[in-house]
Amino acid sequence: MLPNTGKLAGCTLFITGASRGIGKAIALKAAKDGANIVIAAKTAETHPTLPGTIYTAAAEIEAAGGKALPCVVNVREEQQIISAVEKAVKTFGGIDILVNNASAISLTGTLETETKKVNLMMDVNVRGTYLTSKTCLPYLRKSRNPHILNLSPPMNLNPMWFKNHCAYTISKYGMSMCVLGMAEEFRGEVAVNALWPKTAIHTAAMDMLGGSGIEKQCRKTDILADAAYCILTKPKSFTGNFIIDEDLLREEGVKDFDVYAIAPGHPLMPDFFLDVETDTTATKQERQSTSRAFKEKLSGSQQERPGGAKVDTASAATQPLSPVAETFRVIQGAMSEEYVRTTQGVFQFELSGDEGGTWYIDLKTKGGSAGFGKPPVTADVVMSMSSADFVKMFAGKLKPTLAFMSGKLRIKGNMALAIKLEKMLTQLNSKL
Is the sign of the CA dihedral 326, 329, 333, 337 positive or negative? Predict the structure, then answer.
């Protein structure tokens, strides 16, 4: 953990989306220095599924040693931004730091993304960031060491980051383009930088996307709070940078990153927009054990099976099965009411290459089932990939999230259920 230095004492930070998650973590880190925090977020009343309001966040900030000003702000509404900025200046005498953290996400393809979702992402991520920056800039220019920090990625133009969620990528890169443009426009006056995590971060949004168990693959919001604190305490000449949290903290001398892990030692999920090798997401020991177990299960059963008959579990013991068919046989054998109860989803797989065709896993109908052909009920999620990558995914050699992010897996339908598949595959691997 990066220690506080007191450098933000008396500084005023305007943070969008600060009622929970990353925004609140950055606020609490600054509050320990005795900073003033403007909590510019939507949630004024308790949300049915999401934790925290602007008022509960304010209480935590005050308890940590800071001063808090909770303001109801939907960054889609320009007048709400203007009113909050005016209130902040009236209360604290100015604004020294703006953190553009508010963001909307929909990991869907072009044909699956509803227009209202496109509008939401463009309005919150791009327009909201732009307008909040524009509104704060006249006051930031009067500050001694002003900063704008956007929670947005380096602009990686590898097509794989566009093909599966084009609208979301455009909106996040829009935030990054604000950094690129404003850093140069206000060079010497206001520092403008971007911060992005190297791994997935555990927030309420991640829980909603990934479901129960996803947190083990994530780091705490503390790592971004420490990285943000490091950036915001640098001189305003530090500008125009696209910073990765872990890389910066390593440069600052941090050596122990287990303190940031939800489950120290557990493989971490890489974040979007960063090109990584598959091997970085799993420990060598874990890969070898899952691979060895799967190979043992498949020993002597590598022959291709002609046609496309449904997996027959009764004949599997006497007739060698090809890798995909064997995989579905193992899945069928591991079915339980517990899987069905906790998953409640039907997965359809459109596989290309050897053993191509349609396969399914039904974890919604009583008892569950898996096999060749279309599912007995309408699929909630349709996943398209090569049969070789499917076998790798089941064997623990390829994580579904990384397969999706790298373009090897295309998903249509319920994204939350798709991410739940990762947990299910881990459980099934343990049965081998």
Answer: positive
**Is 229 designated active site?**
no
Given pLDDT bands bounded at 50, 70 and 90, which one contains residue 429?
A: low
**pLDDT tens by residue, 402-415:** 677 667 888 887 76
Assigned token pair, 281: 């997401």
CA dihedral defined by 400, 403, 407, 412, rounded to 10 degrees?
Answer: -10
Q: In what helix (H) or strand (E) does residue 425 lie, and over which residues does it extend?
A: helix 415-431
**3-state SS, one letter per residue, for 98-152:** EEECCCCCCCCCCCCCCHHHHHHHHHHHHHHHHHHHHHHHHHHCCCCCCEEEEEC
Contact (Cβ atoms closer than 8 angstroms) between residue 385 and residue 354: no
What are residue 351's DSSP bridge partners? 357, 385
Q: What is the pTM of this model?
A: 0.72
Cβ contact 259:221 at 8 Å: no
Give pLDDT tens digits for 109-119.
Answer: 999 999 999 99
Helix (H, G, I), strand (E, B) or coil at 357: strand
The rounded distance, in Å, linking the Cα atoms of 401 and 424 is 13
Residue 132 sits at the vertex; the CA angle it makes with 131 and 134, to the nearest 5 degrees, is: 60
Q: Which amino acid is at 32?
A: K
Q: Which candidate in 168, 173, 260, 360 is catalytic?
A: 168
CA distances from 357 to 159, 214, 286, 383, 419 (A): 26, 30, 30, 12, 22
Q: What secondary structure does DSSP assign to 382-413, as a single string?
A: EEEEEHHHHHHHHTTSS-HHHHHHTTS-EEEE
Point out which residues pair with 377 in neighbouring strands: none
Sequence-ordered alpha helix ranges (H) in 203-283 = 204-210, 222-232, 245-251
Provide the token pair at 381.
């999620």
